[in-house]
Amino acid sequence: MRIVNESIYIHNADITPRGKTALVVEGGGMRGVFSAGVLFAMGMRRLTGFDLYIGVSAGACNVASFLGRQYERNFYIMENWSATRRFINPVRIFYGNVMDLDWLWDITISNYRLNLNEIFSNSTREFIVVVTSMDTGKALYIKPNKENLEYVLKASSALPVLYRNKLYIDGHRVADGGVGDSIPVVEAYRRGARNIVVVRSQAHGYRKNTNKDVYALKLVFKKYPAFYEALTNRPFNYNMEVDFIENPPADARIIEVCPPPEFKTTRTTIKHATLLRDYYKGINTGFMLSDNAQKLS
Predict the structure, then answer these.
(1) What is the dihedral of CA 274, 81, 87, 154, to 10 degrees?
(2) Could you state, in order of their start, the residue ranges of all structural domains in the chain?
(3) Which H or E element spans position 197?
(4) 0.90 exceeded by the pTM?
(5) Angle ∠(129,6,248) on CA atoms, nearest 5
(6) Which CATH class for the 2-290 domain?
(7) What pLDDT was estimated at residue 152?
């Protein structure tokens, strides 16, 4: 492993990989402010020529703006709409959606819509959004189109319990992609990528621990036992993905881009000063990554 700085780690740094290039972006609610900053800097430096893009939840939203060349879009949305009690309100857990995705999607489509024409202007690149089937508990890797992208992004961002409205894709009731595949780097490898940049929402070395609170959700998801099982197995699967990142196959190079240790934003942070500070951490990291772009070739 080669360490560029406390946010950039190159695994299998000395090989010359043959195969596709991929950009994989983890979700994490408001922690996506870091990847929003990273992708802003990459866009400014024109580090945009990947063959495959895979995003989860907030990460998928950031990738969509990146492909639309709207590099500042996601932080603008966070600052003006996401970081408000109109969007995130814990009191609503008793009578509605803690995260009001319907309102957020309506207001962003009305005021700062994705550039759908630009996103789908290049037929040679592949864009995948991860959602989770509540019926099977498995990840679904959706290749969206201009007509359904916004709906698919909402489905990928629909955090269990925090958003309760029912969303369906291909006959499956679906929810947050992070339940089925939090960091889809193995899927990128399976699709032929051997030179992979993965932008994470947690610091390097982070592993998920078993969350005993999840057992309280058994009754909530009694109609979806496979989804509940996926929730309970999530730490194991997450840590398997991290192990893959840190110990990739011999024919693959993985550049791991992580928030620095002093990153403060959580899944539901709405404090503007914290978000702005962590956004700039992402921007600085993205510029550092771009300055080392020869490592991607």
Answers:
(1) -110
(2) 2-290
(3) strand 193-199
(4) yes
(5) 50
(6) alpha beta
(7) 99
